């Protein structure tokens, strides 16, 4: 399958010399104006319609595919689904028949295609390849996908998930630590027909770490490159990864694996944070042991950072570390272990742009542990969702909880779930001002969220866990907007 970069990126600009310009975007965009010294009266009207093609990237098996490093026998289960029409916020999908497919890059179907909305598409993968999730025509709008794995025992004991996302040219990812036995793998996937060069920079408590090992990492066309961050620096206690692609776009995920002495410390995937901004919100944080809020300042100026917790009863100050100063270009961890165990949101504000994420752990003394990373996300403007297929090897149903946070104002949301028989269920939920609410979605096969009232900025994430004799396994997946519509914006022709 030959996927061009222009068919993947969220916004592409196509110019036909002296004739006109068209902008195509997955979400409806604002009008675009071009300055002119001599305008010609040939302006065309703008229009928008349902997206007819959408794509997401999944990293594939995280613990395989690094040259010179032995593969570990952990595969993944990839699941995808297209949102029910009810959840599409009033947008109608394209009418032409379409399909949803999983392609093991560079080629090869991972599972039979599906053509019905709400039906989930599931495939298992053991080889070190990325996966392209593609929706066309009637199945293009509202596509979401995720991969998961479960290792119930041994050194890699863990339960993890990673949402599959759109590619981009720049990412900030927060994960990992400097403890013995901690190892971080960066997974880069390339959907395009040409190789892409990627530069990787690590940031820590003392600033950026310069290393030639992070420069010019090649990701082959329709391929994947796995990279040990230890080759840049393995001693950072609070690593933050900055990924910049040149010559194309890539997907990026960091796997954080911890062997705590002789016991498994757990593993999880960390997804890119929301773009640097002065207001970051992290959904679906559930403290139940040692936990940290990680904050980084990408720019050179010092940041005055204020963090608070968004609870079911509204905003509350952190027990400690609610207001701190962080030097430009550096990273700080704030201990949030004293927070109550209920699912909450974390809001982090500063006077300069920052990025943020949180890690929570589950561990019983003398037994294996596990942990989960949750990144800040942009607010949901259309519909966000996730297929909820259990990972391979799960002997009992995975417990799952949808955590919803509204910041800035209150919000009303509709939560639509689809069960194993394809039956849809709708629930309306009101979230207070700067507060968090939630819904148990244990027996659903997919869940979808969209705002129906209020002005609050809504964010959401799914907390999943399993209990056995050794303790609790946990993972958290933040939800992101799915593609719904395209815009064709008419522009005024410019004559010289």
From TrEMBL:
It holds the Pfam family DUF5719. Residues 96-116 are annotated as: Disordered. It comes from the Bacteria. This is Secreted protein. It comes from Pedococcus badiiscoriae.
């Amino acid at each position: 399958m030959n996927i061009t970069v222009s068919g993947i990126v969220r916004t592409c600009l196509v110019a036909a010399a002296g004739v006109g310009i068209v902008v195509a975007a997955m979400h409806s965009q604002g009008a675009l104006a071009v300055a002119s010294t001599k305008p010609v009266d040939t302006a065309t009207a703008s229009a928008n319609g349902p997206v007819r093609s959408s794509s997401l990237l999944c990293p594939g098996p995280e613990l395989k595919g690094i040259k010179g490093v032995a593969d570990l026998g952990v595969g993944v289960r990839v699941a995808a689904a297209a949102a029910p029409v009810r959840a599409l916020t009033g947008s109608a999908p394209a009418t032409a028949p379409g399909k949803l497919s999983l392609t093991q890059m560079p080629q090869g179907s991972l599972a039979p295609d599906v053509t019905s909305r709400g039906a989930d598409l599931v495939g298992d993968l053991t080889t070190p390849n990325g996966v392209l999730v593609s929706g066309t025509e009637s199945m293009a709008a509202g596509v979401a996908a995720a991969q998961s794995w479960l290792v119930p025992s041994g050194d890699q004991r863990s339960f993890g998930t990673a949402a599959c996302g759109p590619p981009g040219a720049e990412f900030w990812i927060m994960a990992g630590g400097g403890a013995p036995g901690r190892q971080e793998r960066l997974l880069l996937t390339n959907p395009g027909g040409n190789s892409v060069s990627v530069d990787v920079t690590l940031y820590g408590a003392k600033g950026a770490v310069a290393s030639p090992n992070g420069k010019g990492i090649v990701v082959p066309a329709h391929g994947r490159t796995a990279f040990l961050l230890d080759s840049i620096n393995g001693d950072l206690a609070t690593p933050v990864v900055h990924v910049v692609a040149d010559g194309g776009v890539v997907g990026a995920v960091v796997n954080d694996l911890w062997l705590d002495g002789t016991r498994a410390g757990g593993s999880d995937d960390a997804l890119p944070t929301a773009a640097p901004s002065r207001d970051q919100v992290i959904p679906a944080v559930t403290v139940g042991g040692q936990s940290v809020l990680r904050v980084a300042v990408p720019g050179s100026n010092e940041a005055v950072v204020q963090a608070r917790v968004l609870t079911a009863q509204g905003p509350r100050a952190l027990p400690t570390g609610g207001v701190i100063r962080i030097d430009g270009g550096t990273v700080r961890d704030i201990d949030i272990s004293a927070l109550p165990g209920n699912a909450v949101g974390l809001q982090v504000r500063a006077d300069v742009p920052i990025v943020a994420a949180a890690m929570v752990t589950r561990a019983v003394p003398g037994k294996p542990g596990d942990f989960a990373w949750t990144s800040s996300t942009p607010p949901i403007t259309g519909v966000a969702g996730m297929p909820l297929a259990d990972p391979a090897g799960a002997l009992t149903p995975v417990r799952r909880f949808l955590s919803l946070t509204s910041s800035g104002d209150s919000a009303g949301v509709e939560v639509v779930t689809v069960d194993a028989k394809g039956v849809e269920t709708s629930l309306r939920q009101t979230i207070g001002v700067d507060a968090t609410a939630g819904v148990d979605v244990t027996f659903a096969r997919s869940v979808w969220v969209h705002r129906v009232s209020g002005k609050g900025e809504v964010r959401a994430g799914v907390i999943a866990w399993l209990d056995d004799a050794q303790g609790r396994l946990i993972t958290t997946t933040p939800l992101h907007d799915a593609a719904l519509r395209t815009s064709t914006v008419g522009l005024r022709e410019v004559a010289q």
